[in-house]
Design brief:
The protein has 7 helices and no strands. It has 156 residues and is an all-alpha fold. The chain has 2 domains: 15-85, RNA polymerase sigma factor, region 2, helix turn helix motif (Rna Polymerase Sigma Factor, Chain: A, Orthogonal Bundle); 108-155, no CATH class. The chain is rod-shaped.
Amino acid sequence: MSATTRPSAAASPCPHKQFAAIVAAHGRDLHRYAHRLAGDRHTAEDLVQESLLRAWRSLGQLHNAPAAKAWLYTIVRRENARRFARPHPQQSETPPEKIAERRPSYDTSTEAFMLRRALRALPAEYREPLVLQILAQMTVLRTVPWTVLRTVLWKA
């Protein structure tokens, strides 16, 4: 074995120590490189975390330990490219409190639509007491005699 190559991580007795040594040696450089790519400290931290996770998962593919820095840089660069390939939801300028206010105040379900359509199909003399008693939760017993109301509701 030459002095420039080392056995792969899979053949290494402790890949945890090897990975920790690689991160300790190149971590600061990776952060600087990711910050230069992303232009933002928080995004750079995310890039480095995702890249190190990918590097850990593919540590067995690193056969040449001196090439670890270039290997990590490639992973960071590709992870940065993946960031632009992923769909990003659009940020709304409307505060969440205002979104709730903009919702319709009526039920938009299919059942509610069918109920409104059936109510519109009823003649007015049947629809009005039904709407007042059931939907508006008003008691019409005070204004309409019970026998009339019961007859109207039964026919509806």
